[in-house]
Backbone:
């Protein structure tokens, strides 16, 4: 039996805000890319709202899971994730402490 796994772990390196994340001198490429992406979203009338921890409604996990699947399939191809559902995604996400979700609202 063969299989594969993908795991992404991110640790906050002491950033109190998103701007703190973008501001280190070594983050020039990151800063430029994020500003470009945010500008493109604003031009399309998209509003980004951030939800954290308990603010994330259970119904949001289904959409988050679909976005996650799309990203994994785009990066790694079909068939990477097996036996994973939006329910297990929500359970796994909440088991790792406070998390955040972003929703997109077109005006």
Residues:
């Amino acid at each position: 039996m063969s299989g594969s796994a993908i795991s992404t772990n991110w640790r906050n390196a002491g950033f109190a805000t998103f701007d703190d994340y973008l501001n280190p001198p070594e983050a020039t490429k990151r800063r430029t890319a994020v500003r470009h992406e945010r500008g493109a979203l604003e031009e399309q009338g998209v509003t980004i709202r951030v939800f954290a921890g308990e603010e994330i409604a259970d119904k949001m996990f289904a959409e988050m899971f679909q976005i996650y699947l799309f990203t994994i399939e785009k990066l790694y191809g079909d068939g990477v994730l097996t036996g994973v559902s939006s329910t297990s995604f929500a359970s796994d996400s909440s088991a790792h402490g406070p998390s955040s979700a972003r929703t997109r609202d077109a005006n």
User: Anything to note?
Assistant: The mean pLDDT is 75.
